[in-house]
Design brief:
Elements (H helix, E strand, L loop, with lengths): L2 H13 L5 H8 L3 H10 L2 H35 L6 H28 L9 H10 L13
Helix pairs in contact: 1-2, 4-5
Length: about 140
């Protein structure tokens, strides 16, 4: 595989497959140095952002279009007008894709939401105090 083909494949993996440089390096047998150079030289981060933004924008536009079509059909029904079958067919096809759009937007929100990095529960703190620090907590009797 030529260097150009490797660079193109690595760029695609970074931008569209959202793989890390370490994963790409292992998979393609490339050094971190060359991957960091390519990432900077060819603006992979900007391209990744633009690709994500374009997908998100398309999802929003598709949902807005479906809302407008539903409103138009609803208005036609209220006015006792016949809705053209192609409009109904188009709306049905768009509505079939809504779960995929929702799944995509949810995945974007999960990526942007910071994940907790291990919380210390009170039970875990007591276990550390007891087993590592040697601190024993005895129940306090109010009635002595």
């Amino acid at each position: 595989m030529t260097k150009y083909n490797q660079q193109t494949q690595a760029e695609h993996m970074y931008i569209y497959d959202k793989k890390s440089l370490a994963e790409i390096g292992l998979e393609l047998g490339l050094s971190r140095r060359i991957l960091f150079y390519w990432k900077k030289e060819y603006n992979w981060d900007k391209k990744r952002f633009d690709a994500e933004h374009t997908k998100y924008q398309f999802s929003e536009e598709l949902l807005e279009f479906a809302r407008k079509m539903m409103n138009k059909i609803s208005t036609d029904i209220d006015k006792n007008q016949k809705t053209p079958p192609p409009e109904i067919y188009s709306l049905i096809n768009i509505l079939k894709e809504i779960p995929l759009v929702k799944q995509y937007t949810d995945s974007l929100q999960q990526e942007q939401t910071p994940k907790p990095t291990g919380c210390l529960t009170p039970d875990f703190v007591q276990m550390i105090e007891r087993e590592i620090l040697g601190i024993n907590h005895f129940p306090i009797n109010d009635k002595i």
